[in-house]
Specification:
With 313 residues, the chain is mainly α. The chain contains 13 helices and 2 strands; from the N terminus they run H-E-E-H-H-H-H-H-H-H-H-H-H-H-H. Helices cover 75% and strands 1% of the residues. A two-stranded antiparallel ribbon has the order 1-2. Helix 2 crosses helix 13, helix 4 crosses helix 7 and helix 10 runs antiparallel to helix 13.
């Protein structure tokens, strides 16, 4: 019987070849995911990050088409932040953003509790309830304009007429227009929050409910001490998305009221839109957008920090 003798030099060469082969395999596996991501990253670069960088640059210039842009430094930011219409828009943005976020989260939580389960009928109802979240906001806005129609022919006013009330000028009254817009926003985003909270409820251990029921724990105590702690990650996602969405609210206001009447529903984004596309002040509109971007990033980081701090306790 003949034994094969391998020299130390041969073993080292074989080891080097194996390492090179493993490195090639690992490098190929590392490249493949990026190949799949490349089309999306390219689209994001062209249609999102490049325009974002261009907007940041234009915020420091007096944009003059065909005459050349003129560097003015922080003048656009100073002008935007000192404009009383933007200052009013800050208040409207905060009221609308906080109101629609809190309302949509609470309503989404209630809907999730009511529609939790595996029954086929619940799946159909959940699908129907989720429709506002996937319907174009422009279409939803037009539907709500018809519902808010300021005569007794309007859907809501016809219902109020049965109780001897109305007609109410929901969109033409400066004191009601912002709240009417908030109601539509809650109706749109509550189903979206409901789906995320339902995903969180699916991971709750059912034995905890059974043990709580055997101990005679009330419904409110079960919600407070069992359900809410269990769905904390889902709630953190909902709150983060609602914060960003509340600050960047635009389509709902633009479609429903256009910022009126008398600027009573003007939010930060509608002011920036008016400044850029109505008054052709591209530099000022870019500065307003950059300010909103910085505030959104700051709030997002703050919310995530508070979430991680709460999870660490």
């Amino acid at each position: 019987m003949t034994a094969t003798v391998t020299t130390p030099a041969g073993r080292r060469a074989f080891s080097v070849l194996n390492k090179n082969a493993v490195k090639k395999v690992i490098s190929k596996k590392a490249v493949i995911p990026w190949l799949f991501l490349a089309p999306g990253l390219l689209l994001a670069l062209v249609f999102k990050f490049w325009p974002m960088a261009k907007g940041i640059r234009l915020s420091f210039f007096d944009v003059r088409p065909f005459l050349g842009d003129k560097w003015i430094g922080l003048d656009n930011y100073e002008r935007v932040l000192s404009d009383h219409r933007f200052q009013d828009a800050i208040g409207h943005t905060l009221i609308l953003g906080i109101g629609q976020s809190v309302g949509a989260i609470l309503l989404g939580f209630v809907l999730a509790l009511l529609l939790e389960g595996q029954a086929r009928s619940l799946k159909i109802v959940r699908t129907a309830v989720f429709l506002p979240a996937v319907t174009a906001t422009a279409i939803v806005g037009e539907l709500w304009r018809l519902m808010y129609y300021p005569t007794s022919d309007g859907l809501i006013n016809s219902g109020l007429h049965l109780f001897g009330l109305g007609p109410v000028q929901f969109l033409d009254n400066p004191n009601l227009a912002l709240w009417s817009t908030m109601a539509m926003s809650i109706w749109i985003w509550a189903p979206y929050n409901m789906v995320i909270i339902l995903a969180g409820l699916a991971g709750v251990d059912r034995t905890l409910y059974e043990a709580a029921a055997m101990d005679g724990v009330s419904l409110w105590q079960r919600l407070r001490y069992v359900t809410l702690p269990a769905i904390r990650p889902a709630l953190a996602i909902v709150i983060t998305l609602a914060t960003i969405r509340g600050l960047r609210v635009f389509t709902e206001v633009y479609v429903l009221t256009g910022g009126g009447p008398a600027g009573s529903t003007d939010v930060w984004m509608t002011r920036a839109y008016t400044l850029g596309f109505t008054r052709n002040d591209i530099g000022g509109a870019s500065a307003a957008s950059v300010v909103l971007l910085c505030v959104t990033l700051l709030l997002t980081v703050t919310v995530n920090y508070l979430r991680k701090r709460g999870e660490a306790r």
